[in-house]
Amino acid sequence: MFKGTFTALVTPFRGDDLDIAALEKLLEGQFSAGVTGVVAIGTTGESPTLSHDERETIIRKCVELSKGHCSVLAGTGSYSTRDAIEATKRAEQLGVDGALVVSPYYNKPSQEGLFRHFKAIADSTSLAIMLYNIPGRCGVDINADTVVRLAEACRNIVSIKEASGSVERVSELRGRLPDSFTILSGDDSLTLPFLAVGASGVVSVASNLIPAEICALVAAFQRGDAAAAEKMHRRLFPLMKDLFVEPNPVPVKTALEWKGLMSSACRLPLSEMSEGNRTRLRQTLANLEKSR
Q: Which of 2, 95, 209, 232 could pair with 217 in a Cys bridge, judged by C-beta atoms 3.0 to 4.6 Å apart?
């Protein structure tokens, strides 16, 4: 169900308030580029720092503006199963097309705990669910056996955003899951390698800034033009890496500010980029512009 290019949207702030005008401008750029979908209030959207009312405001705005343009997923994960269920139910009421549910973080549940957590969420909703595996951030890995078990037990768990950094993991999942269950890269720099072993797209941070280019890379591979996809990957790779030179979404919001789309403001505990890394990112963007 989920394939192509999904943008993990940043949340624009003006001071400490939501900047809805900037969100609208960001979404217009996504629609013009032809993204498959957007993810509202995911971790790139600094969801842990948002109030419940702010989360609902962003979801509602994304659903309202995206009709006829692209799908909307809401990030509804939590390390509390009860809270994740409530967030998923509310997102469904607000009209999203699916939920992106990150692994519980900090409490490091067992594989049985992970299975029960995700199954409880799936059982509470009719939404299509995309699992989100990012062990480097969450401290726990949804292993392949658990993903297969969930796919068999829950017909609305239909996809996974895989950010383990492992091509081998994607190869294993693709070989063990039905074709209808899609795998999306959770790392921009690994999109092409993951596509090569069976992934169906990407949930991208870079596409906040360069949506048309990320869409073109994925589309080239999907139409069978691997050489064109590789050429685009090599051109975009330095930026893909430098957007993570400091904690996400600090670099991409900095670049979006330079582009005039929004303030670079993030909420604490995130802080502004160091001057050295700002210089590095500016040079990378300048090099990319020269290569057009």
A: 232
> What residue type is assigned to position 179 of the chain?
D
Domain regions of the chain by residue span: 4-223
For the stretch 72-121, pLDDT in tens is: 999 999 999 999 999 999 999 999 999 999 999 989 999 999 999 999 99
**Distance from C-alpha of 253 to C-alpha of 12, rounded to nearest angstrom:** 8
Joined together, the tokens standing for residue 254 give: 């900095």
Kindly name the residue from 3, 67, 89, 132 that is annotated as catalytic: 132
Q: How many CB atoms lie within 10 A of CB 260?
A: 8
Question: Is there a contact between 36 and 71 (Cβ–Cβ < 8 Å)?
Answer: yes
Q: How many CB atoms sit inside 10 A of residue 173's CB?
A: 23
160 burial (CB, 10 Å; 0-12 / 13-18 / 19+) is buried
Query: Span 184-206, mean pLDDT?
Result: 98
Q: Is the pLDDT of residue 1 over 90?
A: no
Percentage of the chain lying above the pLDDT 90 cut: 98
Choosing from 61, 89, 106, 161, the catalytic residue is: 161
- Based on the residue annotation, tell me whether 132 is a catalytic residue of this protein: yes
3-state helix/strand/coil string of 4-69:
EEEEECCCCEECCEECHHHHHHHHHHHHHHCCCEEEECCCCCCHHHCCHHHHHHHHHHHHHHHCCC
Amino acid identity of 161? Answer: K
Architecture of domain 4-223: Alpha-Beta Barrel (3.20)
The predicted-structure confidence for 202-235, as pLDDT tens digits, reads as follows: 999 999 999 999 999 999 999 999 999 999 999 9
Asked whether the predicted pLDDT for residue 14 surpasses 90, the reply is yes
